[in-house]
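Ops channel
N.P.: pipeline sanity check, posting one input/output pair.
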């Protein structure tokens, strides 16, 4: 059944890039739900901020999507996708796949230290009160 796409869904060009990474052949029974639809459901949750249990009914069941998300997270699939996309972008820009240098930037802000203790402040206030 073909459904109306959500704004968070992968288009065909994006899917062609990710499909070889996500759909690696594994032994065992074929998946019950298409990997593209599982990824679309994960992107839907990320884009809308909805709860897993609030996934629309035309996407795979939330329990299936959530358990697949956990498996992909545990297997570092999202890091693999990020690495692949970063390398591809760098190469398309005529750069080396891996950066040759990195810049680390940090900023430290010193806070002003309060001199003395609260006791001396109270004592000062009491002295002022006696003088008047």
């Amino acid at each position: 059944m073909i459904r109306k796409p959500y704004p968070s869904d992968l288009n065909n060009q994006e899917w062609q890039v990710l499909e070889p990474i996500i759909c690696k052949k594994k032994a065992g029974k074929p998946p019950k739900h298409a990997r593209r639809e599982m990824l679309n459901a994960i992107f839907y949750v990320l884009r809308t901020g909805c709860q897993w249990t609030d996934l629309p009914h035309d996407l795979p069941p939330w329990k299936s999507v959530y358990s697949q998300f956990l498996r992909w997270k545990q297997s570092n699939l999202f890091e693999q996708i990020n690495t692949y996309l970063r390398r591809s972008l760098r190469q398309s820009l005529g750069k080396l796949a891996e950066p040759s240098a990195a810049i680390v930037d940090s900023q430290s802000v010193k806070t002003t230290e309060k001199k003395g203790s609260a006791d001396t402040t109270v004592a000062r206030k009491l002295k002022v009160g006696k003088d008047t």
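N.P.: looks fine end to end. The two ends are 89 Å apart (CA to CA).
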